[in-house]
Amino acid sequence: MSTDPPGSTTDNERSRHWITDVQVTPGNNDPNCEFSAKMFVDDELVCDMSAIGSTRPLHWSGLLLCNIYPASTLTVRLCKCIRNKPRYFNSSPFTISEADEETGEATLELPKAVWVITVKSLTPAMANQVFPDELEKFNAIEGVYGGLQSEATLKYLFKYALQFASLVAKALPESTTKVSFLIYMKAWELLDQQAQLDETVQAILRGLTHIQDILDIVSQASDSMLANAMSLSTEAIIGILALLEDASAYIFNQYTMNDLARVPSEHAEASDTYDVEAYLGCLEELQKAFYSSWSPTGASFGATEAENNTPSDRSHPEDDAQTTSDESAKTGWYEIVNLLRPINPSGYDPDQACLDGTREVLLNRIITWTQNRENAQTFMWISAQVGMGKTAVATSLCQRLDRVGALASSFLCQQDDANFNDPLILLNNLICDLAMKCPAYAHQVAIAIRANPKLYSSHLSLRYEGLVKRPLQKLGRLSMPVTLVAVVDGLDECGDHIAQGKMLQKLYEISRLVPWLKVIVTGRPVPEMKQYFKPTCLHKTVVHLHHHDASPDIRAYIEGQVAHLAETEHWPSESIDQLCKMSCGVFLWAKLAVQYVKKSAFPTLPHLQKVLSNQKSPVTDHFDTLYASVLETAIDNDEKDIKVAYLRCIGAILVISAREPLAAPDLQHLLLAASQVDQRTLEQVESNLGPVLLVPDGQCITFHHPSFQDFVTDPSRSGQFHIRLDQYEEEPAAYCLQVMQRDLCFNICQLETSHRLNRDIADLNHRIDSRIGPMLKYACTHWIDHFIALPTQALVESIKRFMEGPKLMYWIEVLSLLGCIDIALAGLSKLSALDLGRFSDWDLVVYWAKDAHRFILSFYDAITTSTPHLYVSALAFAPRKCPTALRMRPHFPNTITVARGGVSGWHPCIKSIVHPHVIQTLSISPVGRKIVVGYPDGSLAIWDT
């Protein structure tokens, strides 16, 4: 059995064979007797089955992978042991490939015994039978990986493996992929039962993002394309399926007792560990092999050829146009070029393309989309903020399309060049390019010009109508081997916003005129583009570059440019890592930084240090100019109120997003409440700041690069757009306190008892998600930081009201449920250390904060282990004179009280710590903030005091 299609294996090739069960009949009724067995494939021991007594059937089950040849044989040595006296029985060899395909069973007889051994394998025929039911189970899995709780949802990354196998099985039904799918499902069923995953399994799951990238590409292909395209990538697909089978087997072994666990071969070292690095490296190499072999244009061509082999009606004008002689066609487009005079040079510049091997997922995904004629979407907008590599992506697309004869036209708009920002010139170039690419179109345009010579010098709308729309409408039935694509880069730089809107409408209409032509435009998410795009372009798709992690590609670029310099000039070891980190996914930053460093006439280290320390340089100057331009365009300086609103929103976004990523709706809600800006104004601000602001659906709002914050917070760089961030901390702080006063309540997650530990409550995460919303989580974790950044008398009064009532207890309760009690301790410690004597009642707030800190610390273990013990234990057994308990107990009259004994004040011992070993040494840091102890085994433990 193999992952290859049937018939592809030769006598010298190994294939993968899965054994799932071994059964011995009749059973064992003798309590003094045990049976064990050893399995051999081609005389090599592959499995040692443990002894089974009389209390259970003689049946071993699990997963055993054997790499076999077509002529490979299997034998079993059965051991019967009575009172520690073994007796062995060897089966006759059985050729594995002769097992029953429908049942997977092979019967092995023992010549000198009454027992019969049945070995069951997972065959393609069996997999074919159960696959529909297993596929239905897979489709019923509802969970997804991602969001702000990635650790809790990590297991759902395994769905990528299942989805990949299901797609391959659909595209290549004759392959044995369904066997792989069933192996994966066995692993998934165990994964789904685990509350926690070990580090190795987590690493395996994270590696499956490579499969996610492949699925992102494959999802753009039609069913008819899929089979042809996958057949070209068979070798890579087989490798991926096999690697995922091995990973699934490891997961299976980790979480269940596998009776059929494989015995390591003679040449392999016995080890329970899984080589994660080898797995990830192999997966990455297979991913690259898939990319290099994936050819949607070849697949599309195959499908088109099949269509063209059917008889068709040749009575249409466009069919006649196909028979136009080469000389006539050449005359047609030569005449068009002569009249319209396209820019020279025009088209794409290969020097601006992405680095070889980078952006592979994105480029393959888009190329596949272009060749899918079954998809109703014919128009694509590649949207990205400034500097994220739109032009490089557009150029690479043009290169790839040109290579397979699918590039209809390409044009790069440039705002600062009159030759490249004129919509008429753009249209002329498109007409000329398409005429040279498609003789039938050139023929129709030549006819139109001869009929009306004024068309070539007419205004935009008339020229478009006469030389683009009408000629293309006559070619709807034209057969093309590949789908042609027109690429327009930087449409947001083509003329003014009115011209951009008109060109967007016309380019979209072009993509709908004939089935063999699609259009791709790139541009920043400026209001003009979004305004025309949403209502006008119905059959479209949008690709947001920030959704595609460019970090590996940027690293490849930086290392390719400066790795040799770093070595020869002895850069600090972390320099390249720092450059990659500081780029934050923005290619332009990486490019400018590299250019500046390499440009130095002297050793590069001084320039490098300037970049890494974010000092003024050509890198910062370039981005400062970009940001100033964006803000000047967005903000009308004649309207002071508008400018104030923009700066207020920018300041609030920066201070809030710096604390914690919030999903767009939640951040918008907080901004509306905290910055006193209405909904319409906020939406307009977000839209106008699109070139520098990321507003992804369901994800956090952030500025696209940290350099924007550096710009607006430095008055020497931002001038009139300067923002003092501390001025925008008061409003979020006030809103956080309002949210807590409004939403905090007793037993917020409705825990039924204090007898169960938090970790034993199966649905605790669901309760937390449903009852503690993102805004309340944010408020509970960040209100102190916002207050410390800009304390005011009003905020002090609000904090006093918050701490004097039961809301303080409810706050501690929420942080206990979230596993964030350390945030409460750190925050209260910060409050206690503030010197704000100028504010009324501040001394009282400090007094309460210090006692609340001691209260939590003293009952830390109880509060963190089981949240109800905040009330049942901590509040009940706190000292009689504890200020926190004195204020809280009246609000909880049913709390038990100590009738006799007890203590009146806090004990000098703050906390008792349990140690795993005897303490051998102890040391306290000079300032008393850390304690370190040493154990006899040489290990150390460190605590913050």
UniProtKB/TrEMBL annotation:
Asked whether the keyword Repeat is assigned, the reply is: yes
Residue ranges of domain Nephrocystin 3-like N-terminal in the record: 358-524
Q: Keyword set for this entry?
A: Repeat, WD repeat
Q: Where are the WD repeats?
A: 912-945
Enumerate the residue ranges of region (Disordered).
301-327
**Does the keyword Repeat belong to this entry?**
yes
Q: What is this protein called?
A: Nephrocystin 3-like N-terminal domain-containing protein
What is the species of this protein?
Answer: Rhizoctonia solani
| Higher taxonomy | Eukaryota, Fungi, Dikarya, Basidiomycota, Agaricomycotina
